[in-house]
Write a structure and sequence with these properties.
By secondary structure, the protein is an alpha/beta fold. The protein folds into three domains: 1-100 and 290-319, 3-Layer(aba) Sandwich (Rossmann fold); 101-281, Rossmann fold (3-Layer(aba) Sandwich); 320-403, ACT domain (Alpha-Beta Plaits, 2-Layer Sandwich). Helix content is 31%, strand content 19%. It contains 13 helices and 16 strands. The protein has helices at residues 13-21, 36-43, 59-62, 83-88, 101-116, 119-127, 153-164, 189-195, 215-220, 238-247, 290-310, 344-354, 385-390; strands at residues 5-7, 27-29, 48-51, 70-73, 93-94, 145-149, 168-172, 184-185, 198-201, 226-229, 252-255, 279-281, 331-339, 359-366, 370-378, 395-401. The strands form three sheets. The protein has a seven-stranded parallel sheet with strand order 8-7-6-9-10-11-12, sandwiched between helices. Strands 2-1-3-4-5 form a five-stranded parallel sheet. α1 (13-21) runs parallel beside α11 (290-310). The protein is elongated, with a radius of gyration of 26 Å. The relative contact order is 0.11. The mean pLDDT is 96. The structure holds 1,4-dihydronicotinamide adenine dinucleotide. 1,4-dihydronicotinamide adenine dinucleotide binds at residues 76, 98, 100-101, 104, 149-155, 172-175, 202-204, 206, 208-209, 230-232, 256-257, 284, 286-287. 1,4-dihydronicotinamide adenine dinucleotide (NAI) binds at residues 76, 98, 100-101, 104, 149-155, 172-175, 202-204, 206, 208-209, 230-232, 256-257, 284, 286-287.
């Protein structure tokens, strides 16, 4: 039997186990990413497609996706998927926005402690055979001011752990946030930079955050403070950071994300920060743990099976969100995706009543482009219902679930 579910890029086995356990079909696992041509050749036969971040899903490939019900991005980001094209075709995309938040927060704490104890330079000198046994410049983190930029999933998780270590947590966010424990919000980024012993970035890459840590902002940081960027590579002007490390204004930095990153293990990694002993560099692994991979595999697979079996689109990235209770016994559910134009719902309901169906529940959600209406009916829908529903002008897709 040909697999109707394809999971690329070494997605965690948890996903396959869940999809198979849910009885959705045959799952094929691929170790690598698919090229555009390979994807176009495979996509026509697929019911579900799972990718991580290296398989681009283009509008051209989607044009062949006649049976594809949904796409799972087993990642945080979804930039590599043509979200609007998928939406227009009635294909929801699901991802896992915070399954690796804890992993990033833990690593940021580790970097905080190591930087405050000047471990990177002591490690480097020990590796060279030197014995730099001194307490000079080494501090506990207890009682120090941690400045968190962006108090979202990761920032707030970090706040809780840091408070547990006795740190004084301050944060700056452009939105009002529920503060955890004794953490305190500050009104402006500059204020946070001026007061913090450690500044750690946890914001997305947007027009408002790109190069937010430029030369001017780095100069505002406390002399001897340290900077952590485990968020996005374009938040910090790397040359300006190299300059403040060179001058000694900052005592150290930990950086996991870079303006340009190698595409794979065969490409060399180069950065102006490589010459500093007081810098911890890592290859974009902030969220890369076994626990995070497993949690992502489970979360996205659950979302895919909830959509296939129940029509649920809660927390879809590109699709109107409909939250639904499980389908009751003796009922069927008709999931209808249509262009968002006037009159579709009433014509669809006319088709239901022409088929003699008793509607027991109906939920509608719309985006600017499409509408998604899910109708629960008593008994079994007649065989010609799908044809009738397809005949409603504006219809993109129809599925009958259950029964
Ligand atoms: P999130 O969306 O939950 O939180 C981001 C926060 O930043 C929000 O509260 C938002 O209001 C705030 N924000 C946006 N613009 C801002 C600005 N100009 N100034 C201050 N605050 C602003 O995101 P999450 O999940 O906490 O992720 C944070 C960052 O970490 C993202 O850039 C994400 O891509 C990155 N990340 C990196 C990983 C790695 O492997 N190094 C793994 C996971 C996430």
């Amino acid at each position: 039997m040909t697999a109707n579910i394809l999971l690329t890029e070494n997605i965690h086995a948890e996903a396959r186990a869940h999809l198979t356990g849910a009885g959705l079909g045959e799952v094929e696992l691929l170790g690598g990413a698919l090229s555009d041509d390979e994807l176009s050749a495979r996509i026509a036969e697929l019911m579900l497609l799972g990718v991580r971040s290296r398989t681009a899903i283009t509008p051209e490939a989607l044009a062949n996706a006649k049976q594809l019900l949904a796409i799972g991005c087993f990642s945080i980001g979804t930039n590599h998927v043509a979200l609007e094209a998928a939406e227009r075709l009635g294909i929801p995309v699901f991802n896992s926005p915070f399954a690796n938040s804890r992993s990033v927060a833990e690593l940021a704490i580790a970097a905080t402690i190591f930087l405050m104890r000047r471990i990177p330079e002591k490690h480097a000198s020990a590796m060279r055979g030197d014995w730099a046994k001194t307490a000079k410049g080494a501090y506990e983190v207890r009682g120090k001011k941690l400045g968190i930029v962006g108090y979202g999933n990761i920032g707030s998780q970090l706040s809780v752990i840091a408070s547990g270590l006795g740190m004084h947590v301050y944060y700056y966010d452009i939105e009002a946030k529920l503060r955890h424990g004794n953490a305190r919000a500050v009104d402006g980024l500059d204020e946070l930079l001026e007061m913090s012993d450690i500044v750690t970035l946890h914001v997305p890459s947007t027009d408002g955050t790109r190069f937010m840590m430029n030369a001017e902002r780095l100069a505002k940081m406390k002399p001897g403070a340290v900077l952590i960027n485990y968020a996005r590579g374009d938040l910090v002007d790397i040359d300006a950071l190299a300059a403040v490390l060179e001058s000694g204004h900052l005592a150290g930095a930990a950086v996991d994300v870079f303006p340009t990153e190698p595409a794979g293990a065969s490409e060399r990694f180069e950065s102006p920060l490589q010459r500093f002993d007081n810098v911890i560099l890592s290859p974009h692994v902030g969220g890369s743990t076994q626990e995070a991979q497993q949690a992502i595999g489970q979360e996205v697979a659950e979302k895919l099976s909830a959509y296939v079996k129940e029509g649920v689109t809660t927390r879809a990235v590109n699709f109107p969100e409909v939250a639904l209770a499980p389908l009751g016994p003796g009922r069927q559910r008709i999931a209808h995706v249509h262009r968002n134009e006037p009159g579709v719902l009433s014509k669809l309901n006319d088709a239901f009543s022409a088929s003699g169906l008793n509607i027991v529940g109906q939920s509608l959600a719309t985006s600017a482009t499409i509408g998604y209406v899910v109708t629960d009916v008593e008994g079994k829908a007649p065989d010609d219902l799908v044809e009738r529903a397809r005949g409603v002008p504006g219809t993109i897709r129809v599925r009958v679930l259950g029964g």
